[in-house]
Design a protein that fits this description.
mainly alpha, elongated, cell membrane, nucleotide-binding, PycTM_dom, membrane, transmembrane
Length: 184
């Protein structure tokens, strides 16, 4: 005989429960937020590079002429230092945009894991606590996703605020410095 006389039924497998309502859209929104944070960091990096090029070109043009801000009149001097301050504020704001951020609320035992810092805190509390936190995350995925969305959206909004401030200051400095030289 080449095989069993009767067919063997396939093994019984348990299908995973469908995600709770809202979990799929929350996961999609979280992925979108992570993409948006990456774009914000890229924008800030490009603006920092543009700021460096602007400052370099302006400095190069003036350095070749044996020029100093002290040669400006009172109005020109005010415009010069206001423009210099605006570029410094721009650099600070753009660096703050790319500065890594962490969620404001701390993880507590019994809470689901929703962020890398949560995993670190649970692991620091011991392997048993990490195991419980993993189980809580699997038991109530929507709660963890909601916490992740809250923290991540706050981070994205902060990055955009700093980029906006940096861009405004960069624009002001880019207008004020040439105006100072032209005013004399």
């Amino acid at each position: 005989m080449s095989g069993p006389a009767f067919p063997v039924p396939p093994p019984v497998t348990q299908r995973p429960a469908p995600p709770p309502p809202g979990a799929t859209v929350a996961a999609r929104l979280l992925a979108d937020l992570h993409t948006e944070i990456g774009r914000a960091d890229s924008k800030a990096a490009v603006l920092v590079a543009a700021l460096g090029m602007t400052a370099g070109v302006f400095t190069g043009l003036l350095a070749g002429k044996d020029w100093a801000p002290g040669s400006l009149g009172a109005a020109g001097l005010v415009l010069w230092w206001a423009g210099t301050a605006a570029l410094a504020v721009s650099l600070l704001a753009l660096l703050l945009a790319v500065l890594p951020r962490y969620r404001a609320d701390a993880w507590a035992p019994g809470e689901p894991l929703s962020y890398f810092a949560d995993i670190r805190q649970a692991a620091a509390a011991g392997e048993a606590e990490l195991t419980r936190a993993l189980a809580a995350t699997e038991h109530d995925p929507l709660h963890g996703l909601a916490r992740a969305l809250t923290g991540t959206s706050r981070i994205a909004a902060a990055k955009h605020r700093w980029i906006r401030a940096g861009l405004i200051a960069f624009s002001a400095g880019s207008v004020l410095l040439p105006a100072a030289v032209l005013t004399g």
